[in-house]
Design a protein that fits this description.
The chain is an alpha/beta fold. It has a single domain, classed as TIM Barrel, CATH 3.20.20.70. Helix content is about 40%, strand content about 15%. Strands 1-2-3-4-5-6-7-8 form an eight-stranded parallel β-barrel, surrounded by seven helices. About 45% of the residues are buried.
């Protein structure tokens, strides 16, 4: 079964102009009508680091979750953020960004990789106590522009460390859009064969004309969990100066349906969400 994760948080976080909380909530409520597996709706991080996300708790209070089957995911960057997120029963997943790149780990969470892995362990323990699930985003999972070491073998080493901590969901992430289809297919194929008990996801950023081939490569490698943002809005403000957009969800949907996958989405509500995304982001 395909799991589609819609990421309005990723789309919003780098925008320079603050989006009113009510507008954020209205957009996320519309996304909740579509039928996505999970909505990556906000983050509990320093408002100085990501000012756009300073109202995540307020937005959460305005969400109508009664009729939606979608789960909620919030990003955290440290233990304090995790503790804040765990106060809310509505949140199902806590996402933590762990990087293969020491440079990016410092830029993204102001911590070393070693410190970040310790944080993952603490958050994992907290999630197990609270009945939540941690999703670790293995960023720079397909290479990095900083000159830090990278290899598929290094990815496997990180996955083994996360497996030792009993992390059950790992999203291989290409924050800067460097992944090619061959690497995507092989990386997922090798990791899924080695760790069949782990759910591997793809959080890829890409030019629009390359999305379909990347999705198909992920499918061939065995990936069934894909992150995206409507119309490809967003990018990581902590990465390179030029932002590479998220995978456009509507292109992923078209590709997956052409490949024969039944996604069970409400396309009428999806069209309404597309209209809202245009009014918010353009």
């Amino acid at each position: 079964m395909i799991q589609l994760i819609e990421c309005p948080r990723d789309a919003m976080q780098g925008l320079p102009d603050y989006i009113d909380s009510a507008i954020k909530a209205a957009y996320i409520n519309q996304l909740l009508e579509v039928g996505f597996h999970t909505i990556d709706f906000g983050s509990f991080v320093s408002p100085k680091a990501i000012p756009q996300m300073r109202d995540t708790a307020e937005v959460l209070e305005m969400l109508d979750l009664h009729k939606s089957k979608s789960k909620l995911l919030a990003i955290v960057a440290n233990v304090r953020g995790a503790e804040d997120a765990l106060h809310f029963e509505e949140i199902d997943y806590l996402g933590f960004p762990l990087s293969l790149s020491e440079t990016f780990q410092q830029r993204n969470t102001n911590a070393s990789i070693e410190q970040a892995i310790e944080t993952v362990e603490t958050i994992q323990n907290l999630c197990q106590i609270k009945g939540k699930e941690q999703v670790v985003y293995l960023s720079m999972g397909f290479g990095n522009p900083y000159g830090d070491p990278y290899s598929p073998e290094l990815v496997a080493e990180f996955v083994q460390k996360l497996d030792d901590l009993e992390v059950k969901t790992i999203s291989l992430s290409d924050t800067i859009g460097v992944a090619n289809p061959e690497l995507i297919m092989k990386l997922f194929e090798v990791q899924i064969q080695a760790f069949p008990h782990i759910s591997f996801g793809a959080h890829l950023h890409s030019r629009k004309d390359q999305i379909a081939e990347k999705v198909i490569a992920g499918l061939k490698g065995g990936c069934r969990r894909f992150d995206g943002a409507l119309q490809g809005f967003g990018g990581c403000p902590m990465a390179k100066d030029e932002l590479v957009g998220n995978m456009a969800t509507e292109v992923m949907i078209e590709t997956l349906e052409k490949e024969g996958y039944a996604l069970n989405l409400n396309h009428a509500e999806l069209r309404e969400a597309m209209k809202l995304s245009t009014s918010i982001f353009l």
